[in-house]
Design brief:
Layout: E1 6-10, H1 22-29, H2 31-37, H3 42-48, E2 51-52, H4 60-64, H5 68-72, E3 75-80, E4 85-92, E5 101-109, E6 114-122, E7 140-150, E8 154-173, E9 180-199, E10 204-212, E11 218-227, E12 252-254, E13 262-280, H6 294-305, E14 347-348, H7 363-366
Antiparallel strand pairs: 1-3, 2-14, 3-13, 4-9, 4-13, 5-6, 5-13, 7-8, 8-9, 8-10, 10-11, 12-13
The structure holds heme C (HEC) (5 copies).
The site of one heme C (HEC) has 17 residues, from helix 7.
């Protein structure tokens, strides 16, 4: 089983869709607000119509504003320490170089005191690149079976050190072919502690330790054996208790040459388990996540409530010489006809909010009589 300590979740954010509300639009699109911004007073115009589109003033959002689409593509990542450490580096992969992200760090010490570092903004491509790069693998030393817990379940803790920030991966198994792996390739530290759960009693486990540095240089240490029939003195359980929350050192960000991946170094004044949260920051302005593009607003939205087929075909342009759309009727890019080519969207003074008399003659507005 491979334990994944670092995962990427694409999920619809739990924040509710931005219901900007009716008066949200009114503020700028009616009365004084509209005048100040040089916009048309949409509300007054709607009030003046003989026929209004039902609920038009309550449904501004529904027809105009981007909703879940963008939220669903918001990226949230989380990385968690493997162990209580003073200093560690998290690798954050898969970000878009030019998007803005929010980074937030939470840390907890062994006594359970917590500290949160408020979110800060980051654009990956603007993060500094380390001015050096090495091709020397890390040195792995002081490898030991630090602890062997023999309760109902047996677990062993391997500990080692490296001379530079490196990842912690342990492969293990009952034969030298190993087979299982545990640890993380995305959290880097100098002291490494990996706990292997679910071991069997009275067995010998072969282990291989791998540490990779920030530049991808890899060291492997073989020959460690965990004998679950033996006693290991073990470290004393942490007894001390304090009420002083950990103080964070500087959170530093960097990249390494040739990659857009982000490294985040988190240090503190005592050993902590840290959790790093990375969230795509979505800019919300007065139009929420943005206005719907014309084709969506003028066709897709309408069809949601008015099944197509009852009306004239849309999404098409004049292809033959037998139709010409007069230039005063609105079309979208490429001369494509939409629902609002013939209907005003908010309401109007004719039945069906028609832009022209909807008698039979309307057809010949565009359909040229064939000779
Ligand atoms: C803070 C002021 C403000 C608020 C609030 C606001 N808008 Fe706007 N809106 C503007 C401005 C300014 C423009 C013109 C510039 C632009 O396109 O961004 C505009 C443009 C628009 C347009 C495009 C107009 C055109 O001629 O194509 C639509 C549609 C629109 N807003 C709808 C809405 C809706 C619906 C709401 C409420 C959900 C809303 N607005 C809320 C300021 C605002
Ligand atoms: C039934 C859907 C629908 C509703 C409800 C609706 N609109 Fe529109 N509105 C449209 C469409 C379609 C257009 C054409 C421009 C476009 O594609 O965005 C439009 C155009 C506009 C424009 C551009 C100026 C104009 O009159 O052409 C503004 C501003 C606007 N709407 C604001 C609002 C506000 C504010 C509300 C709520 C009071 C609202 N709309 C409600 C569909 C709607
Ligand atoms: C939220 C649902 C909804 C959306 C979105 C919507 N409509 Fe409507 N529309 C209605 C309802 C409800 C009526 C009144 C009942 C009816 O006659 O169908 C109506 C009525 C109309 C009428 C007049 C029908 C009549 O018999 O008087 C026209 C024309 C119309 N809508 C066009 C549009 C266009 C064009 C769009 C897209 C810009 C649109 N609607 C978007 C719900 C919607
Ligand atoms: C080429 C012009 C044209 C276009 C484009 C058009 N319509 Fe119409 N629409 C009409 C005419 C004409 C009528 C009146 C039909 C009648 O009198 O039976 C009508 C009637 C309607 C009605 C009211 C009658 C009914 O069947 O409920 C609705 C609602 C409507 N259209 C919605 C839409 C929607 C939604 C679209 C886009 C998918 C659209 N129309 C595109 C011309 C058009
Ligand atoms: C705003 C201009 C306009 C109006 C008004 C209009 N049409 Fe069209 N119509 C078109 C265009 C553009 C096409 C696309 C066909 C082409 O040019 O190849 C089309 C296509 C059609 C088609 C499908 C034919 C095909 O080849 O895909 C039918 C049916 C049709 N129109 C019927 C009508 C009727 C009936 C009326 C009157 C109620 C009407 N149209 C009013 C612009 C219009």
């Amino acid at each position: 089983m491979r334990r994944v300590f670092f995962f990427l979740v694409l999920l619809a954010l739990s924040i509710s869709s931005p219901s900007i509300g009716d008066d949200g639009c009114e503020r700028c699109h009616s009365g004084e607000g509209a005048k100040r911004l040089g916009l048309k007073d949409v509300y007054r115009e709607i009030d003046s119509f003989r026929f209004q589109h039902p609920d038009v003033k309550k449904k501004c959002d529904e027809c105009h504003v981007e909703r879940r689409l963008k939220e669903a593509s918001v990226k949230r990542l989380r990385a968690v320490s493997l162990d209580y450490l003073r200093d560690q580096v998290f690798l954050v992969e898969g970000l878009s170089p030019d998007r803005e992200y929010l980074l937030e760090v939470k840390m907890v010490d062994r006594s359970g005191n917590r500290t949160s570092i408020p979110p800060s903004k980051v654009i990956p491509s603007k993060v500094k690149v380390l001015p050096y790069k090495d091709s020397i693998p890390p040195v792995i030393r002081d490898v030991e079976v630090e602890d062997l817990k023999q309760g109902v379940f047996i677990e062993a803790t391997l500990r080692w050190e490296t001379d530079e920030f490196s990842s912690s991966l342990v492969e293990y198994g009952l034969t030298p072919r190993l087979g299982e792996r545990i640890g993380s390739e995305r959290v880097f530290s100098l002291t490494h502690r990996v706990t292997i759960p679910g071991l069997a009693r009275g067995k010998r486990y072969y282990c291989r330790i791998t540490s990779r540095d920030l530049f991808g240089n890899v060291s492997v240490f073989e020959g460690v054996v965990i004998d679950t029939s033996k006693k290991v003195k073990g470290v004393k359980a942490f007894k001390g208790r304090d009420r002083v929350p950990p103080r964070a050192g500087k959170i530093s960000l960097f990249r390494v040459e040739g990659s857009n991946d982000l490294y985040v170094r988190v240090s503190a004044d005592e050993d902590v388990k840290a959790t790093l949260f990375v969230t795509e920051s979505v800019k919300m302005d007065e139009h929420g996540f943005g206005l719907l593009p014309p084709r969506k607003a003028q066709i897709d939205v309408c069809i949601r409530c008015h099944p197509q087929g009852v009306s004239h075909p849309v999404g098409i342009r004049s292809r033959s010489g037998s139709t010409v759309i007069p230039p005063d009727l609105p079309t979208i890019q490429g001369g494509v006809m939409t629902c609002i080519t013939c209907h005003y969207p908010h309401g109007g003074n004719r039945r069906y909010f028609a832009r022209m008399e909807m008698k039979r003659a309307i057809c010949i507005t565009c359909h040229i009589e064939r000779k």
